[in-house]
């Protein structure tokens, strides 16, 4: 996870980390003493159970004023190389990115209160891998989706944006 995502989460008094958390607790180590005030939830957003878990977690934490979604539009974690990626892994990668974006953005929208100046930031990380056409296409989709949705969100008094984090962050 890019350091910029950790910095954004630490701006909140009680950050909640959800997703496929590394087994080696590297996030907790990076946070140091701050990890004690954070919540940690292993959630697979690519499954209906994981999506439901996350949406229920958001609902339980009402009102939500800030959501940061870290997406890696790369083949990392799919056992692929950019030259020989099997079709089933490419499709899973695309589904994971699109589903995470749609589920989290709609869930965040539903639990945010415009009075609190609520916002969602999608952080796109590059993982330091060479770009592939699928990686570039997914990143462009996420960026364009957020641009289009941000207009609708602004009408409701909410903010939606995209940031690009590079592997060195």
Q: How would you summarize this macromolecular structure in one to three sentences?
A:
The protein is of the alpha/beta class and 169 residues long. The protein has helices spanning 3-10, 26-31, 48-60, 87-111, 133-155, and strands spanning 16-19, 39-42, 66-72, 119-125, 159-165.
Structure description:
It is built from five helices and five strands; from the N terminus they run αβαβαβαβαβ. With 169 residues, the protein is of the alpha/beta class. It has one domain: NAD(P)-binding Rossmann-like Domain (Rossmann fold, 3-Layer(aba) Sandwich), CATH 3.40.50. The strands form two sheets. The chain has a three-stranded parallel β-sheet with strand order 3-4-5, sandwiched between helices. Helix 4 links the parallel strand 3 and strand 4 (119-125). Helix 3 packs parallel to helix 4 (87-111) and helix 4 runs parallel beside helix 5. The longest helix has 25 residues, at 87-111. The protein is globular. It starts with a helix and ends with a strand. The model is unreliable at 77-82 (pLDDT under 50).
